[in-house]
Amino acid sequence: MAESKAPVVAIRCASYDLEALRAALRELLAPLGGMAAFVRPGERIGLKPNLLFGTAPEQAIVTHPLVTAAVALEVQAAGGYPVVIESPGSGIVHIKTMIERVYRRTGYRDVAAQYGFELSLDTEWQAVSVPEGQMIHRMEVIAPLLRVDGVINLAKLKTHTFMIFTGATKNLFGVIPGLNKVGYHGRFTERDRFAGMLLDVAGFVKPRLNLVDGILALEGKGPGTGGTPRHLGVLLAGTNPVLVDVACCRIAGIDTAAVPVLAVAAARGWWSGKAGEVDTLGLPIAELQVRDFQFPQKHIGSLGVSGGLERFGRSLLRSGFTPRPRPQVGPCTMCGSCEQACPVQAISMDKKAHVARVDDAKCIRCYCCHEVCPSAAIELEFTGLGRAMHALKLV
Fold it and tell me: Is 165 inside a domain boundary?
């Protein structure tokens, strides 16, 4: 993993105009040595964006295709060969037709054709050893990851209903192929364990550079269609994805101690755990901070507890202290994305009522269904005592 005190750079960039993006990218990378510090002539460089599923860029769910294009052009200028590598969200099968659809709907296909960079359609994957992993020692990864000389991580600044925030570190979960992601949600149902797994994935990928698209961020009930676009007008970059995420959280006013990935990363020594010690070159965080950024609903998880407390936490989870996913009649189109994404098979299609149904006894509150729903048809609702606690802002 990158050095725990590696610099993070942040600058303003107001729009997705390509020439403005290229100029901003050069300014952003200058304190880090420019793109030439990360790309050697002749290298094949994997660009890993966040392409959760096929949505228009203005919905702020995916890394904007023109941000990726600007990076691709700078990689080419440094003598490298850029190729976009990605396996979309948990409910999407890792096959060529599905990946092509995501590229088309997100605007990546047209932008790649216009600016001359490759979109990988290689659907092979391999099991690899993760010798330094603490939660996993073996995982499946998309084969294109293993066929590049280095990776540039292109994340999106978004809230996340399960993990509070998703940025550079969690974006690397996209190297797990398609529905294999569902298995990881099923194995690591507690947020701290899931966070540990994400850090193991990041430690394996070892991106050379991490860049976050925060020009149009996503707030509220992210990371999918339940979230709301929010113009922040910022780009961030650094070699340590955890520190880049800390800087993002500070800009948005997100408590880093509440973000499982950052809490577990601090316990591993990947950063100090003191958010105030992380500032940015370019523009300091104090000049970029925003107020009233909307966060996802808080829920009681198992971060930092074990044994009896862990069992007690699970009991609370079952008694309504965390919001339950509730597909809504009308917005639900019965597309089956939630059913396919559910790691514990808790969702079925009620054809008579024309709505998806969630079995609360099986639901583990990973919110994969909420994340992948293309119609924003799944509300997260507190019930019973949990509703009263939520109304009093105690959960």
Answer: yes
17 and 123 share one domain: yes
Q: What is the model's pLDDT at position 302?
A: 40
**What residues make up the domain containing 207?**
8-287
Three-state SS annotation for the chain: CCCCCCCEEEEECCCCCHHHHHHHHHHHHHHHCCHHHCCCCCCEEEEEECCCCCCCHHHCCCCCHHHHHHHHHHHHHCCCEEEECCCCCCCCCCCHHHHHHHHHHCCHHHHHHHHCCEECCCCCEEEEECCCCCCCCEEEEEHHHHCCCEEEEEEEEEEECCCEEECHHHHHHHHCCCCHHHHHHHHCCCHHHHHHHHHHHHHHHCCCEEEEEEEEEEEECCCCCCEEEEEEEEEEEECCHHHHHHHHHHHHCCCHHHCHHHHHHHHCCCCCCCHHHCCCEECCHHHCCCCCCCCCCCCCCCCCCCHHHHHHHHHHHHCCCCCEEEECCCCCCCCCHHHHHCCCCCEEEECCCCEEEECCCCCCCCCHHHHHCCCCCEEEECCHHHHHHHHCCCC
**Is pLDDT at 69 greater than 90 in this prediction?**
yes
pLDDT of residue 322: 67
> Based on the domain organization, do 260 and 383 belong to the same domain?
no
Which pLDDT does position 366 carry in this prediction?
Answer: 85
Is the confidence at residue 308, as pLDDT, over 50?
A: no
Per-residue pLDDT band at 332 (split at 50, 70, 90): very high
Does the residue 189 lie in any domain? Answer: yes
pLDDT digits (tens, 9 = 90+) for 268-283: 999 999 999 999 999 9
